[in-house]
Each structure stands twice: as structure tokens, then as C-alpha cells.
From TrEMBL, chain A:
Gene Ontology cellular-component terms listed: plasma membrane
Name listed for the protein in its UniProt record: Monovalent cation/H+ antiporter subunit A
Database matches in InterPro entries: CPA3_Na-H_Antiporter_A, MnhB, MrpA_C/MbhD, MrpA_C/MbhE, ND/Mrp_TM, Proton_antipo_N
Transmembrane segments: 76-97, 109-125, 162-185, 205-230, 242-263, 269-291, 367-388, 408-430, 451-475, 495-518, 563-583, 595-616, 623-643, 649-667, 687-705, 748-768, 789-812, 818-838, 850-875, 895-917
GO biological process terms, semicolon-separated: monoatomic ion transport
Keyword vocabulary terms for this entry: Antiport, Cell membrane, Ion transport, Membrane, Transmembrane, Transmembrane helix, Transport
Domain MrpA C-terminal/MbhE, chain residue ranges per copy: 682-761
UniProtKB/TrEMBL annotation, chain B:
Keywords: Cell membrane, Membrane, Transmembrane, Transmembrane helix, Transport
Transmembrane segments: 6-22, 34-53, 59-79
The species this protein was found in: Antarcticimicrobium luteum
Annotated membrane topology: Multi-pass membrane protein
Chief location: membrane
One Gene Ontology CC term in the entry: plasma membrane
Family recorded in the similarity comment: Belongs to the CPA3 antiporters (TC 2.A.63) subunit F family.
Cell compartments where the protein resides: Cell membrane
Protein name per its UniProtKB record: K+/H+ antiporter subunit F
Amino acid sequence: MSLFLIAALPFLGAVFPALLIRAGRNAAAASTGAVTLLALIGLVLHAPAVLRGETVSARLDWLPDLGLNANFHLDGLGLLFAGLILGIGLLIIAYARFYLSREDPMGQFYSYLLLFQGAMVGIVLSDNILLLLVFWELTSLSSFLLIGYWKHLPEGRQGARMALAVTGSGGLAMIGGMLILGHIVGSYDLSVILQNKDLIQASPLYAPALILILIGAFTKSAQFPFHFWLPHAMAAPTPVSAYLHSATMVKAGLFLMARMWPVLSGTELWFYLVATTGLVTMVLGAVIALFKDDLKALLAFSTVSHLGLITMLLGFGTKAAAVAAVFHIVNHATFKAALFMNAGIVDHAAHTRDIKQLGGLRHLMPLTFTLAGVAALSMAGIPPFNGFLSKEMMLEEATHAIWAGTPWLVPALAVFGALFSVAYSLRYIAHVFLGPRRHDYPTLPHDPGAGLWLPPAVLVVLVVLIGLFPNVIATPIVTAAANAVTGADVYFHPALWHGLTPALYMSVAAVLGGALLLGGHRAALGIWNNLPRPEAKAIFDAIVGAATGTSRRFSDRLHNGSLARYSAIFLVFTLAIAYYAFASGTLGPETRAPLPVTAMPVLGWICLVGSTLSVVAFHRNRLLALVLIGVTGLIVSMTFNYLSAPDLALTQISVEVVTIILLLLALNFMPQQTPRESSPGRRSRDVAISVVAGLGVGGLIYALMTRDFVLPSISEYHLANSYKGGGGNNVVNVILVDFRGFDTFGEIIVLGIAAIIIFAITEAVLGSRVRARLLNRKPWSPLAGDSHPLMMVVATRVMMPIALMVAAYIFFRGHNMPGGGFIAGLIAAIAVVMQYMASGFSWATDRQRLPYHGIIGTGVLVAAVTGMGAWFNGLPFLTSAFGYVHPPYLEKFELATAALFDLGVFLAVLGAVLLALQSLARYAWQPGIASEHPMDINPERDDATQTIEGH
Amino acid sequence: MIEYAVYFAATCFGLAFLMNLWKIATAEGVGDRVLALDTMVINAIALMILYGLANGTEIFFEAAMIIAMLGFVSTVAYARFMLRGNIIE
């Protein structure tokens, strides 16, 4: 299976659970599992080649100018990680099906999970660091959704925000580091970067690149001092914790360090940054974990500690340490995911995760106890389980590490950390499962069904098998991965018995010490509680609060809700820039003579100036201001006509009508007068600013029109190619549907989105308590006349077919003469709105057969399908085609795909305008005020006279 | 000959246009101003057609037609607003 498909499958598959949840939770879970299984099979098919040492790759140029290419490759490291992500993902999917309750939206959960899975697979398969960054950000976003999945829990929302803030800002730092790295090498392809170790390490930019990349990796992998987000992310459902916070997302940082290991490691800076951070994190996490009473918090800090361990191993910079790191990644993923699922089982059964309320569970949950016991012993590093093997290798490597000239420091701290690790692992067994059976559990626990215990059991079996037969099960994949990390052939031969090595003594010391420490847990807890220690959440909240406060103070001064202030700031800023440009640039001589002044333009000029001055004079009367703006609109459209832009004139006229209807609908809810709010001083300041701005714009336009352009304009190209290339004589229309068709496509989508948002806001407002106030609104003046006057109804009914015909005419001729889909859509919309105005909201809505959303969607789809049609001819999106036909008895006419595209524009505009106007009309709609009949007086209706009398 | 006729007509409609503007700016009450605006729209149609006649082009015909067809919609909307407050009941 192509690597593209493996990376894309989870994203494509994310649609299925969201849709299939309607067929039941099993269908959603099964579809998610099937997608993951398919990707896993695809991966496994590549495994033999990768294990032989080959690298599978798939390349596609995406944005070659930016160096961003969709290049994927699969080597040992990628295979190991992708296998973990998809394999454990499969178990998590099964587990989550039985873990989530009936109230939880499971389709959503699986969709998020698949998005996350896709992003993770993308990270580990990327052969382009820019592509890797895209997937990196996607994991931050999708994990935000997963951590905050239980939206009703404040801890969940806060944890999700914190995780996003920390990993997101780390991601920003990493973007910087990666860009520097790409700049040093001159390529953003990983395979190229990995060949240039000397170039990178000799560069003066090595240190900044390394630090920025490490910030990204450390935040993601919860290394000190960024470790605090991980325990707070435990508010997520347990399957999420088991998946993201043991096996996958937190390992992304480790993956990155391992991926970059060949070129970044081996320097002093690397050793001191990475190994020290890892060491501190390992010890700190282990110590805190021992004193946590929440099972998941214990596991979270234990994860922090183990991640520190792996980071430290990578930091050592030796090949043997890198091998140990890879091996521990595998082992940690197996036992920690099993333990998280186990904690979830306990939580499910006993309805608490507080260790203080637990104990003695082995009598009630023997199966869960067995699984927890094996996994926890492996975490403690007890033979014969897999955790022992890699922990021994870690201790062995620690003895070789010399930190700032002191050979004993690292081994001593490693033993200290391992000791606490043993203590908390044993505590998980002793304080939860051992001890006497209690009688005060929140609910009486019992072993779960197979759906919950089978997935962790699979992992526990692996824990045992890797421990007993490491060379059969783990060696091939670990060797392949370690080869990829180190870029050389490594020797990997783990065994339970190494002889009496220093590592063995250290191990024994850690186990005995850990057991003793657990025995004195009560005393140790007393000491711990008396130690002063900074609370990470408080510090984080203080930083976020300070940042929010500062930006709020800044933005509140700029955005205080006053339109006058916005315009003043905008105008002063623009004037300053313009003045700078004018003062620093040069102005060429006037090359064009002014045209003679004729009567028509003078007339238009007088009207424009007159209406503008009147608007200024009367602007406090809102309705009057609207009428006066109508004059401006009329003159502007006539000016367009006079200056040979009939398309613009047509658009302006139809937009004018729609705007007036829209504003009248809104004015109905507003005071008729704008009150005087600003002081005379402020008003004169505003007048001064606007006069200067007006004179500036006028001067700029005068300067532009009396000179030729410095650079040749693109109009010449459009004029020359409009008929030849686009098949149309109307250049404006050909630009819209052909030359700049992609812009138009984006615009109709935005238009549709805007209309749907208006609809959504209306729905929300009318669903709230405001609805009652709207329904009980009293008109501001006595109502006069009829609600549905007969004259108006008859006139608009007669106008409707004519207007629609005109719309069709304008549409069809658009390609060669002024017109097109946009104008036609507006005209058709006005034809329908007339019916709303004449016969009322209820009457018109009853006769609306197609929902306006559907019309918008159809329009966008028609445009998209037309654009995609070009693909089938091997041409880029939206390439148009046209031809001429000669039907018998008719003149020849043109058939162009651009017309189909224009049909999409027509439908989108029609739907958007009508949806927006109809939504706004709903605010004022009051049942019972107006009759439901199309006309108030209808001679055909017998009850007409009575209805009138009844009013 | 047609030339002079067009000029004469354009002068008349142009003057009417200015008078409309005067009324829109100064008339009592919004109703009169809306009526003046409606008249101005009609004068605009005339001016457009005359300009087309003077230049021998049909290109302005559609614009004039659409103004004629749609111009009354805004007037009706203003009228409904003043009488009923709500233009879509």
C-alpha cells in the first residue's frame, strides 16, 4: 500500500464514525477499527523490506517553491512508531467502545481519535520537515479536542487549553528551529538534512536551531520544566490518556529527537541540554509520582519520569544509549498503555481512582489484579518482564556518563530515580489491590467484560513475551529502528542475565530501596507534604493571566466599540503611511492632459457632492441618511455606465436594492435618531481627520489619473486574451469566471458561509429568551394601511416572471455582453424578495420548496464540479473549455464550461441573498399581526370582509 | 436634427435631476424625499437612454431596463417601512 494512503487513511476514515454513529455505536467503533486495521495491514506489508534495511518512500511535489513537498518515507524508526500508533490505536478503539458511556458522543470521539492518529502517522512518515511541522501542529489541535472531549468538565477544558498552550507554543519554537535547519542545509527534505551532520554542527546557527527544536520536543514530551501540562491532561477520558499520554503523542518529541539524532547529537551542547533535562525530569517525575493518590496522576508523573529516562538516553549521544532508548520506547508503550487502561477499569468498577479509597481489590477483581501486577512489575524493572531489560540497559549506560567531570553523579541519580520508580510501581499494586478487602468502596467493584480487559491483556502478554524472548520478538524491529536512529549498524542483543555487572547491583539496590521506601510511605508523605514546592498550575495561570491582562488593556484602548474611534485610528495610521510614502518617494511629471469638462460629469459631480454633504448634515436621522445614500448609489452606477463599465453599473444597481431592504429590516429594530454622544472637541478632531483624509484620497487619485502607470498594467493581457483564451467578449465576465475563476470560487464559498452564519445567529437568538421580547414588541408608531396591499401583491406577481426572465437573459448573455451569474442571481433574489414583501413572511415561506442552504450548496458544488472537470482532461483545476455549435435553422452559438461555473455563482448568490434576508425578516415576524392570506382584500374570498371587520 | 433634440431633452432631464436633488435635500418629511428619489431614478433612466442615443450605442439599454424594473422595489420598501415599520410581515 502506498505510504500516501497509509498516511491519508485515518483522515479519510474520520468521516465514517461521525456518520455511522447513527447506525449505532458498534458501527462507529467497527468502522474506526477497520480503517486503522487497513492502515496497519498496509504498514505491515512494507515491514519485510524495511527490516531488511531498505527505505520505502513516496514523493509528491506539493509547493516546491517553498520547499514543502509531500514526501513520505518509511525506515525502521518510522515502522516502529507507526506500528505502535496503529497497533495500540486498534486496542484503544476496542477499549473505548466499552469504556465510554451511553451519554458520550462516541462518533465524535472516534473522529477525533482518527484525526489524531492520522496526524501522528504523518509525523513519523514525513520525509520533509515542513510537512512534519504541519502534522505536528495537527497533533496539538486534535489532542486538544480529545483532552477536552468531556466538555462539561471544567478540568477537561482547562487541561485541554493548557496542553494546547504549552505544546502549541513549543510547536512555534520548533517551526523556527526547523526553518533555521533547512536554511543551513538548503533543503527541507529529511533525507538530505540527515546527510549533512558536519555542515550543521559547524554552522553558527546550530545552537539556536538546536535550542528551538528542543523546546518543541521537550514541550511535546512533557520534559521539565514543561512537564506540568501532562498531569492536567489526565482530565481526558482514560482511552485518550492511554493512547496520547503513554504510547503516542508524548512520544512525538522523543521521535523527533531520535529522528534528528544523527545530525544534532554528539556535541557538548546536546549532551548537557538533553541528558540533563532528561535526568532532572526522570528523577522529579518519579518522586512526585510516589505521592500522588489519583491513579491516573500517578501514572502521568510516572510517564513524565520514563520520558525523561528516554530523553536522557538520547542525550548521552552514544549508539548503545540510543539503542536502549529505542527499546525502552517499545517497552514503556506496552506496559504504560496497559496500566492506563487498567486504571480506567478500576475507575469504572469502583467509581473512584483515589488510592486512599481503594485496596484489597485482588479479592474482587482477580483478573484486573493479574494484569496490573505484571505491567506494574515491568514498570518497576523486575525480571523477567520487558521493563527490566531496558532499565538494566539504562543503568549500564548511566555508569558510562560523565557529567561535568563527575562520573558518579548520573549513576547515582539514575539509581535514585529508579528507586522511586520501583516504589510507585509497587504502590500501584500494594495500595490498590493488596491489603484487606474494604467495605466502603463507592460501588462494589468486579472484573469487567472482555471488551475492557482484553486490550490491556494483549499488551501484558507482549510485556511477558518481550521479557522472556526479547531476541525473537523485539530484536528485529528494535535493530531496524536503532539503525535508522544512529545511521549505522548497531548490535542489539538483550538478555535477562548479564552476569554480575554494576547495572545489576544498581538494579538490586533500587528494588530493595524502593520496597523499603514504600514501607515507609506514610512517613515519606509527611516529609513531602511539608516541603515547599511551586505549584505549576498557579504559575501557568499567573503567566496566562498577565498576558491576557496586558493584551486586553491594549486592545480595549483600540477597540472600545466606537466606530468613530476605529475610523479615526485607521485614517490617522493610513495618512501617516501615505505621508511617509509621499515624502520618501518621487512623483513623476504629469503626462496626461485633463479631459474637457462636459455637462454630464458636472451634473453627476454636483449630485455626488450634494448628497454627500446632505448625509453629513442629516446623518443623525437614520432613515433620511439611507435615502440620501440612495442618491449616491444611483450616481455611482450612472458614473460606471458613463465610464464604460456597464457590468459594474448593473451590479451596483441590484446591490443597492438588496442593501436598502437589508438596512430597512435592521432599522426596524433601531432608534430612528442617532444620539449625540461625543464632545465638541472630539467632533472637531474627527472632522479635521476626515477632511484631511478626503483631501488626501482626492489628491492621490488626481495624481494617478494625470500620469501614466509606471509599470504596464495587466489589462492589456486580459483584453488581448479574453476572446482567444476564454471565448468571451465581455472581459469583466471572462475575468470573473475564467482568468480569476479561483478567486470567484473562493468568494462564493465565503458568501455562502456568511449567509449561513447569519442564519445560525438568527437561530441562536430566536432560540433564546430574546424571542419572547421580539414577539411582544410594540410598533414605534401606529400601523397604517394594509399589511398585504392588493395593488402591491398584483404588481409583484406580474413582475416576478418578467424579472426572472430578465435574470435568465442577463445570465446567458453574460459571457459576451454586460451581465453574468452574479447580477442574474441578485435580480432573481429581488424577484423573490418582492413576494416576501407583498404577501408576507408566512405566505412566502410556505411556498419555499427548496431550502436556501441547499441552493447555496448546489451552487458551490456545481462550480466545484465544473472546475474539477478540467482534471479529467489532464488540465489544472478550473481550466475552461469552449466550443461553437451550429444547430440547424439557428445561428451559431457558444457552449462554454465557464457558463456552468457561472451557474454555480448564480445559485450561490441567489441562495445567500435570500437566506440572509429571510433570516433577518424572522426577527420581526410576529404571528397574528398580519393575515396569513396572500392579500388582505381578495374579492374571491368569501370571508374577506369579515376578516377586515374583525381586525 | 436628432442631435439637437437629444441635447434639448438631456438639458431638461438634467435640470429636473438637480431639482430632484434639491427636493431630496430640503423637502419636509421623509415621504417627500423618497418620492423625489424615485423621480430622480426615473430621470436617471431617461438620461441613460439619451446618452446612449447621443453616442449611438445600445449598451446602456440593459442598465436602464434594470433600473426601471428594480428601482420601484426600494421605493415600495421605504413606503412599507414608513407605514408599517416592518417591510416583510
